[in-house]
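Researcher: Good morning. I'm working through a list of sequences from a screen, and I'd like to move beyond sequence-only analysis. For each chain I'm collecting a predicted structure so we can compare shapes side by side. This is the next one on the list. No need for commentary yet; just the structure.
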Amino acid sequence: MTEELKEIGLDVGHRRVGRLMRQNGISVVRTRKHKVTTDSNHKFNIAPNLLDRGFTADERNQKWAGDISYVWTREGWLYLAVILDLHSRRVIGWAVSNRMKRDLAIRALNMAIAFRALSDAWHR
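Model: Good morning. Structure tokens for this chain:
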């Protein structure tokens, strides 16, 4: 804001501009550059879409789906990987990390596999 005012010929400093903005209830909304996290232009094989939007299942353990999201916490942004059983719509595995790396998804999947193995043994 100070630089914009100087460009139109006003001789002001950062402190004065800040004080005047506060007195008039004006605040600056800062925009951040979008951080690209996925690069679809690569030479690697693309996994087939086996579900083809069929997000229902007749039995447990027939179809699982996973997703990764980020969540704001007191410690800052954390990534959450979740595995769902599409029959029960329950979370059967999850993992949290401060970095979105391969092991995040692997840990969530391992938890789901362990949970379902234990659950199946319990119900038999």
